[in-house]
Specification:
The strands form 5 sheets. Strands 1, 2, 7, 8, 9, 10 and 20 form a 7-stranded mixed β-sheet that branches. The chain is of the alpha+beta class and 391 residues long.
């Protein structure tokens, strides 16, 4: 039988950070992972360049049943703390829009620094390890397909349900439920939205067209690009709003967020009165999209032939395009999982289960979901670090 002071299930971002932090305290740490290699989600982050954190980071960038839960961890291990670790290992990086930090090179550099810090502190990592059973008496016993381990502290860092092709499962939620912890219903997050058959008949052939827009739903609004796909809508603004969308909700899209179309049309009536409206709108938007919206909802004619009532109606189509998605593309392409282990069950300081001594949950498995832009990896670093101080 193998004895460890800390066993961590999951060799992703949160699990590795927790392990190296505990190792720095002199704890004897083992990570178990069912996959053949570690950190797969880190490697695909940021298109392979790893959007590892965000300079402009606060609790308002996270969704949770308890919006205050994440504050303590984000303060105790901030974006600047992780940046210091990146700089310690000589990893070069750059800022993109809205404070997003990416490696100049590949995501592998971030994974390598975590593995090197783990190696220095003596962390052992066991891959291809299927967990058969977990029991708790005075200590935890973890039985796998090949070994049995006894540990003082057990950390669940198994991630969520998103991206099952790289090994995501609901194992962490099952562990929580085994020990009597409530799990908030899970949904795909940061995920493309699908459209109904009738809407796809209207817009499916616009697949590949991208446009800058402001997208709103349930009191939230994001200004970034949207992308038409053969299934529906994607792009950064759609992924962001998907975290707030619920089935049956409509989303409102402002396709021309930088101008007042009513005033613009009135100006055209003076300066270009004989020009057809579809050609003028086509100068502001992708021509195919502008023409399609006109074909569907309004008749085209020279701009000087529109009444004020018609102008207002027409402007509303482009400033407040309302559409009800039929669903999402699901966990297969979702970047994160909304929901998870109820934060009311955990200490925001230690991440220990309130009613199960020495059982900890960190990272995506917890009901804390960040926006697109490095926020979810920072949550993994912060929650893993904080638990690593106490396991």
């Amino acid at each position: 039988m193998n004895n460890y002071e800390v066993v961590i299930i999951g060799a992703g971002a949160a699990g590795l950070m927790c392990a190296l932090t505990a190792g720095q305290r002199g704890r004897k740490v083992l990570i178990l992972d069912h996959a053949g290699s570690v950190g797969e989600k880190i490697l695909i982050s940021g298109g392979g360049s790893c959007n590892f954190t965000n300079l402009y980071l606060g609790s308002e960038h996270y969704i949770s049943g308890n919006p205050h839960f994440c504050k303590s961890a984000l303060n105790r291990f901030s974006q600047y703390d992780f940046i210091s670790l990146v700089e310690k290992h000589g990893v070069s990086y750059h800022e993109r829009k809205s404070g997003q930090l990416f490696c100049d090179g590949k995501s592998r550099e971030i994974l390598n620094l975590l593995l090197e810090e783990s190696r220095i502190t003596g962390v052992r990592i066991q891959t291809k390890c299927t967990i058969r059973e977990i029991k708790k008496e005075h200590y935890f016993t973890v039985k796998t397909n090949s070994e049995e381990y006894v540990t003082e502290s057990l950390v669940v860092a198994t991630g969520g349900l998103s991206m099952p092709e790289i090994g995501a499962t609901g194992f962490g939620y099952a562990v929580a439920e085994q020990f009597g912890l409530n799990v908030v219903t899970c949904q795909p997050g940061l995920v493309p939205l699908t459209l109904s058959k009738s809407d796809l008949n209207n817009f499916g052939d616009l697949s590949g067209i991208s446009v800058d827009a402001a997208v709103s739903c349930n009191g939230q609004s994001f200004r970034e690009s949207i992308l038409f796909t053969h299934r529906g809508l994607s792009g950064p603004a759609i992924l962001q709003i998907s975290n707030y969308w619920q089935p049956g909700n409509e989303i409102v899209i402002n396709l021309l967020p930088d101008l007042d179309l009513v005033q613009t049309i009135k100006q055209w009536q003076k300066e270009r009165p004989k020009t057809e409206l579809k050609n003028l709108i086509g100068e502001l938007l992708t021509r195919r999209l502008a023409h399609r919206l006109l074909e569907l909802w309004y008749h085209n004619k020279p701009v000087n032939q529109y009444s004020e009532k018609e102008i207002n109606e027409f402007a509303a189509i482009f400033h407040k395009w309302r559409i009800t998605p039929s669903g999402t593309e699901g966990y297969k392409v979702a970047e994160v999982t909304r929901g998870g282990v109820d934060t009311d069950e955990l200490s925001s300081k230690t991440f220990e289960a309130r009613n199960v001594k020495s059982l900890y949950f960190v990272g995506e498995v917890v009901d804390v979901t960040g926006w697109l832009g490095g926020y979810n990896l920072q949550w993994a670093w912060s929650s893993g670090y904080c638990a690593g101080q106490f396991v």
